Amino acid sequence: MKRREFIKTGTALGVAPAVGHKLIPDSLIAEEEADIAVATGPDYYQNTIQAVGLLGGIKKFVPEHSRVVLLPNPQSNNPGTYTKPEIVRAAIHLCKDAGAAEIACIGWLSKRYWRNTGIKKVLDEEGARLVIADDNDESLFKPLPVPKGILLKEARIIYAFFDYDIFINMNITKEHSGNNFSGAL
Length: 185
Fold this sequence. Notes:
Elements lengths: L2 H13 L28 H11 L12 E6 L12 H13 L4 E6 L3 H7 L1 H8 L2 E4 L8 E5 L8 E5 L7 E5 L3 E3 L2 E4 L3
Parallel strand pairs: 1-2, 1-6, 2-3
Antiparallel strand pairs: 4-5, 7-8
Helix pairs in contact: 2-3, 3-5
């Protein structure tokens, strides 16, 4: 698998939990629900819709009237380092289609990162909230133990996460200076 194909496949896998099936044709929906879905092609929005449909649709993950938090990766404006805005838009549309009461993105990076990647524009256009916690303000984070953690014994979780019912991780598969590997299951 070439790097470009790996990145495309990793992106599709990373957003697979965040899409639904009402918007895709029945011919693209598997007869059996999949555990992992991959959609390929140049249209990230449609790939997201298709992948979630293959998993059984967004309503399998997002109950009506739930409060949903999305966690796309806005870390940089370099290609291949952030979640595509079209994927975020598809996830928002799918959550709305499922009847979500509220959709937000939460993070600790400044609005500059969200603007530079185009994600902030999508959030504004789609009416989704952006909640940013100042990484230097410990009162905004809840420390939680990591059971059986070897290197990481405790994680700091932004308190605002606990205000939501459903959490959809949308980061992309990559290597970066903060971690040897970044991905989501």
